[in-house]
Write a structure and sequence with these properties.
Helix 6 runs antiparallel to helix 7. The protein is 74% helix and 0% strand. The two termini are 32 Å apart.
């Protein structure tokens, strides 16, 4: 069986990666103070062009959890996971033409914010709790 411990080159590469990531964060913390409000930070003050907005949405669909979890999901449950792909063909147009325009007009940034605006803070909290419990997904 192979030795599965970090060697010196592994520590060097890992340390460099952490230092570069921290350096980028410190650089933008010191020089990127253009955003003064959460509206400017989260929504680009609603002045972002189509291509950057589309790339941002695409990146949010492919999270690190997705990249790490999909192979395990397929290994455990089989290839039925591929059915998620065709479902996007149905869901994305509905979201783009029904939900996004409503959220944009109401100037909300999440479905939870919409729930609070439409119903109450209790409904928003209930939605958050249901989502969190669903994410735990105990079998």
């Amino acid at each position: 069986m192979a030795d599965k411990q970090f060697s010196i080159p592994d520590y060097v590469v890992f340390g460099l990666m952490l230092m570069i990531s921290a350096g980028i964060g410190v650089f933008y913390a010191c020089t990127g103070g253009k955003q003064k409000t959460t509206q400017e930070f989260l929504m680009a003050d609603r002045k972002m062009y189509v291509i950057p907005a589309a790339m941002s949405l695409l990146a949010s669909f492919m999270s690190a959890i997705t990249l790490l979890g999909t192979p395990a999901e397929i290994y455990v449950f089989g290839t039925q996971y591929w059915m998620i792909g065709p479902s996007y063909l149905l869901v994305v147009p509905v979201a783009a033409h029904i939900f996004i325009p409503i959220f944009y007009k109401l100037k909300v940034t999440s479905a939870y914010e919409y729930l609070e605006l439409r119903f109450s803070k209790g409904v928003r909290l209930l939605g958050s709790m249901v989502f969190s419990l669903q994410m735990v997904n105990i079998y």
